[in-house]
Fold this protein.
Amino acid sequence: MISLSHQILNNTPQEYVRRRKPDWLRAKLPGGPGYLRLRQIIDQNRLHTVCESAMCPNMGECWARGTATLMILGDVCTRSCGFCHIATGRPATLDLDEPRRAAEAVALMQLRHIVITSVNRDELPDGGASVWAETIRRVRQSSPQTSVEVLIPDFCGDRQALQLVLDERPDILNHNLETVPRLYPAVRPQAKYDRSVQLLRRAKQQGLTTKTGIMVGIGETDEEVTALMRDVVERAGCDILTIGQYLQPTRHHLPIARWVTPQQFARFKQLGETIGFRHIESGPLVRSSYHAEDQVLSLSDVAPRGAG
Ligand code: SF4
């Protein structure tokens, strides 16, 4: 039998961490009737989902429940974040019919709550904000009973672009900080921590319910997570926070620095609620859109439109 120390000595520490995925990260494989139904809706409408593009470990669970997170503005991102599996490049086109098809898909999905996200389109003058606005409008028209959560990019700090989205009054305005400020150069090289906090602050000032999310296990310390939680509540009044374990999509992405235990995730949740978040979803497999409808239900002022 190979001893633990032997394994560690014969692998780089990162390789060892990557191989030894703890049991608490094992997720259900996609399949079954719910999955097939969603597959058909997405494919027929020629749409993308972040579930697939980001290789989300929760597809088995979410898709079986009929929930997926649509990804608009195509499937090629102009940024190259160190953690993200979405393809990077200069997208060839801007598909102006996508909002119509996204609304069509949402209507077919018959959900009480939908989460929509997008790639970054930094090459466009408005960063894709007008397509965002059109998508929200069309989803509202075709699915008035569905509450809409948008997980938006930072539009390079362009206030007018952001305002196009805020004016559509999504039920939840989500923008992920992703990690602590010290790690931005490696994790989000084209983003700025303060710019993202300002985005959340602006949305909150306009009366929207706001949400952000971070990954842990990518090099941060627990103290830095606590400092981030305080900062985003104090400076931006953020309502909802998601915290999940970073999983390295391929060996070309940033390595996993540690496996955060379920107990530590529970401590983050407890601490964040004390700091002032109204809802925290914290756990190894938590992603921005994981159990998003439940988060909305826990906030009585933004209960899904169809909820009785
Ligand atoms: S957690 Fe979000 S991205 Fe992952 S499968 Fe569920 S809906 Fe898709």
About this structure: Residues 133 and 168 are 6 Å apart (CA to CA).
